[in-house]
Amino acid sequence: MPACQLPIWFSFLLIVGLASAGHTQNLRGRIVDASTNEPLAFANVYYNNTTIGVQSDIEGKFSIKSMGLQVELVVSYLGYETLIFPITESYADKILVFKLVPKVNEMKAFEVNSKRGKAWYENLEVFKELAIGTTFFASDCTILNPEVLQFAYDTATFTMRASADEPLQIEHKAFGYKITYELRQYEYNVVNHNFIITGYPFFTFMTGNKQQERRWKNNQLLAYEGSLLHFGHAVRQRKLQEDGFELHWVERMPNPNFRETSQTKSALNALKKIPFYQAVRKNNPYQEALYASEVQRFIERVDTNKVDYPDFVVEKDSSLFLHFKNYLQVKYSKSTYSWAPGQYGPRTSLIFLDKPSIELDATGRILEPAAVRVEGFWASQLLGDLLPLDYQPPPKKE
């Protein structure tokens, strides 16, 4: 998830000589109201996209295990703006003070339909399909409080947006997780099908019997295999081939013979006159016309030569970076189940960098995921396949 700019409502108090050796592994702080400085009790404090989190006490104080550098600390409280604090230096000898400000409505520029009529329920179904996905495990992933969602459709840009008054509470019965998800951005364009969803998830473990826990662990491993998280781990550990990944360059070029047709223009005009939940459906004639045009817009060529580490990663001062310009095709050949309806064979993904270089941390985590675009299998892995970044697969049996 993308890092946010450091908010102005942050300060820290330097405590000299008070931090004992027993506290050096903990990050400590206090959460208060920005205008009154009153403590905010039971605020949530967690590392983005992990299982590591705590709540503040009655005085707004908290202590959380340190995860080192290059992580995001999320501080949230109902009715207040969520604060994201990038950990870029050691705060072992300091007490952090986070000042939260009341939440404001960020969707005033659009006509927001918060009433739960037919359109709201139809938009909710589309939201679940796009945000949770349609993979094998998505059917076991449920939003428990969908009523907090609001939807807004801008017909001028064909863009649907969604916001949530409070964190989404998600239960994933296939993985044994409950997820608190701070939705930050949700946009889907009906015409070019660009989809952006960003947020700050926190995972808590569900309790179950031994059989359930064994099933959860097996399912987590199935979702991990071939995922972007798995790919990052394999790159860091230099185990791409051993783990079943095969890489090829893909060149995507504009088709010199492509011409926009009158059917495409008619389809665009027609899409402006129907509700979003109808416009988004792939089986309507307007979407079919757009798709027929889109597949002719570009020509793709896959290089049959395999890509090796020096071709797409560079190392600088013990740091590792993804570094390439073209589309990189990533195939995972050790699939053990069909990942989506009608999808068989190797799980194939495309990855493209919006920046020349993207750093991987010591575990293989991509530090700027907002600067990475994916297609294919990885694009299908949404909330229904989401695993925490601190997930580690069980050791392989010898």
Average residue-wise pLDDT: 86
Task: Please indicate the percent range of residues in DSSP E strands (runs of 2 or more).
Answer: 25-35%
Number of helices: 9
Structural class: alpha+beta
Tell me how many strands there are.
23
Give structural notes.
By secondary structure, the protein is α+β, with helices and mostly antiparallel strands. Among the domains are: 10-100, Immunoglobulin-like (Sandwich), CATH 2.60.40; 112-208. It has nine helices and 23 strands. The protein has helices spanning 118-131, 210-224, 228-236, 240-243, 262-271, 276-279, 285-297, 309-312, 377-380; strands at residues 10-14, 26-33, 44-47, 53-55, 61-65, 71-76, 83-87, 94-100, 112-113, 141-143, 149-154, 159-164, 168-172, 177-189, 195-205, 245-254, 298-302, 313-316, 319-323, 327-332, 347-353, 357-360, 372-376. The strands form five sheets. Strands 9, 10, 11, 12, 13, 14 and 15 form a seven-stranded antiparallel β-sheet that branches. The chain has a five-stranded antiparallel β-sheet with strand order 17-16-20-21-23. A four-stranded mixed β-sheet has the order 1-8-2-5, with no helix packed on it. Strand 11 and strand 12 (159-164) form a beta hairpin. Helix 5 (262-271) packs across helix 7 (285-297). The chain starts with 9 loop residues before the first strand and ends in an 18-residue tail after the last helix. The model is unreliable at 1-24 (pLDDT under 50).
